[in-house]
Specification:
The structure holds two protein chains of two kinds. Chain A is mostly helical. Chain A has 17 helices and six strands. Chain B is built from four helices and seven strands; from the N terminus they run H-E-E-E-E-H-H-E-H-E-E. Classes of the chains: A mainly alpha, B alpha+beta.
């Protein structure tokens, strides 16, 4: 058998732990729920879309009636709820996503990139073994034991490719557009910032507004945005750059969420990053001195926010010789405490991930050079 | 282990994978040619604006002329003399196209909104009943592409 066909066979036969996929399913289902809820609100506010100007992608006869549309919207909402709590979660995800795609086909005026991306990711997630964890209808046994959680991973790869394609599509359009490359598009967008700040009572100093509304800033921001998207889309595929690409993505989306109205897009992409988490769990260790107040607090935070089950939490049998209150051992077996230990914690806990790079840089800069021994 | 119809057999997996990927790539490339960049994931693609002014082409006393439509509405009388009000915004609710006589942001770019406007005009023209005098609807559109004047576009939809 050739190398290629062996790799091909291995790719489709590969099975990995599916715990994180359950978490991803909950996040995507929640977003599908909010997306469905918005459609219901739009229906009650604006009326049935086919009663006024609409642009169907499918023959007009295939559109639902008003009552039918209402029913389908309710079904979509119910399906996303089922997926969220883990009742036939994969079938429910597929139904919710397919109904959403059908609604887009009913009226292309309702097309939005973020909604379409959400539906595609929901659709793909349905083909992953995302039902093996966080299925709350199973009660306390919501997550299957480790040996039963392993499942095919090819659909997760497809999900990852889709995430990459979203960024590539976005960055490709910008790269081909001279106005985007030069910063003109962002310049026009930022030009409204003073007016926006006044309207919303934001106390932005005049010098900051002068920078934000300058042509050179828009030019730099445009190039940075294009480079960021390109780096995220490609960097997530190489283990050496993945962490940095994901960190950049998190900061990029937090920035977008704070400065633009993009519906659920930021939340969607931040959730989608869970698909890039190494599937295997408890490969890192967090050790702490039980009696130490700060270490105990940290241990509680780890217990609370370690949603991806990265850490094995272990109380230290005896206080360490170097006086450290906690130790974090990463996947490579590097054991650290202090700022570096916190950085190793932050790199594996979703909620703390934005702090990973600043902490890691701080730890690197403040580390004593090897051989520098105190003379005291 | 949970059973699901969506557990694809090892033989089906490659087919599903390749089919999905091919469809996505096709849609991505096709989006470049679509005026509204449908399925193209092109976020924040433009900071363009457009201003739509609506006109009607009417025939009065045998003469054809173009009259402006103020605030998107006008009144007509049918053959029995009953008055009817026609409102653009009753039929076209899409915010980019419903706003007349003032510049609005062109979501997804100018081409997208002009493409949609052409369909909106045709849709509205076809829906006009009880209007004996309107022969066509005309949209005069001023455009600003990323802050620069991008010219004037005239779109027309005939009722027949």
């Amino acid at each position: 058998m050739s190398n290629f066909s062996e790799a091909w066979r291995r790719f489709f036969a590969e099975e990995r732990d599916a715990l994180v996929l359950g978490l991803l399913r909950m996040a995507i289902s929640a977003l599908l729920f909010f997306n469905g809820l918005r459609r219901i609100l739009e229906l009650s506010r604006d009326g049935y879309f086919a009663d006024y100007f609409h642009l169907p992608l499918i023959p007009e006869q295939w559109l639902p009636s008003h009552a039918g549309y209402q029913l389908l919207l309710d079904l979509q909402l119910l399906a996303s709820l089922c997926a969220l709590i883990g009742f036939l979660p994969r079938e429910a995800l597929l139904s919710a996503a397919s109904l959403g795609l059908y609604f887009i086909a009913c009226d292309r005026l309702q097309y939005h990139n973020n909604r379409y991306a959400l539906l595609l990711l929901g659709f793909l997630l349905a083909f992953t073994p995302c039902d093996r964890s966080f299925s709350f209808v199973r009660g306390r046994a919501h997550t299957l034991p480790r040996e039963q959680r392993n499942g095919p991973t090819f659909a997760r790869r497809l999900f990852q490719i889709q995430v990459s394609l979203i960024y590539l599509g976005s960055t490709g359009g910008k790269l081909l557009d001279a106005d985007w490359r030069s910063g003109q598009v962002l310049f026009m967008r930022y030009a409204h910032m003073p007016e926006y700040c006044v309207q919303h009572g934001l106390p932005v100093p005049a010098w900051a507004l002068a920078i934000l509304t300058s042509a050179w800033f828009a030019s730099v921001a445009a190039k940075a945005a294009i480079a960021s998207e390109l780096f995220i889309s490609l960097g997530i595929w190489w283990p050496r750059t993945r962490r940095l690409a994901l960190w950049l993505g998190v900061i990029f989306h937090i920035g977008i969420e704070l400065t633009a109205r993009v519906e659920l897009f930021s939340w969607l992409m931040l959730s989608a990053y869970l698909a890039f988490v190494v599937p295997e769990v408890r490969e890192r260790r967090f050790e702490f001195v039980p009696g130490h107040a700060r270490a105990a607090l940290l241990a509680r935070l780890v217990a609370l926010f370690d949603w991806c089950a990265r850490f094995e939490r272990l109380p230290l049998a005896s206080p360490s010789n170097d006086g450290a209150a906690f130790y974090v051992t990463n996947r490579k077996g590097q054991r650290a405490s202090g700022a570096l230990g916190l950085a190793q914690l932050a790199e594996a806990i979703p909620l703390f991930f934005p702090f990973w790079l600043p902490l890691a840089l701080y730890a690197k800069l403040s580390a004593k050079p090897p051989g520098a021994v105190s003379s005291a | 282990m949970p059973r699901s119809l969506l557990n694809l057999s090892p033989r089906l997996r490659p087919a599903f994978f390749c089919l999905y990927l091919a469809a996505q790539l096709f849609l991505l490339f096709r989006a470049q040619k679509s005026p509204d960049l449908l399925f193209g994931f092109q976020m924040f693609n433009a900071s363009s604006q457009l201003k739509i002014s609506l006109f009607r082409k009417v025939t009065r006393r045998g003469r054809s002329r173009v009259v402006p439509v103020h605030d998107g509405s006008w009144e007509t009388k049918d053959r029995s003399g009953t008055r009817h009000t026609h409102r653009w915004q009753d039929r076209v609710r899409y915010p980019n196209l419903a706003t007349l006589d003032q510049f609005v942001h062109a979501s997804y770019g100018l081409e997208a909104q002009l493409f949609r406007l052409q369909f909106a005009l045709r849709d509205f023209a076809l829906q006009l009943s009880n209007d004996e005098e309107t022969e066509a609807l005309i949209a005069e559109v001023d455009t600003l592409k990323n802050g620069r004047e991008a010219g004037h576009v005239r779109l027309q939809a005939d009722r027949r």
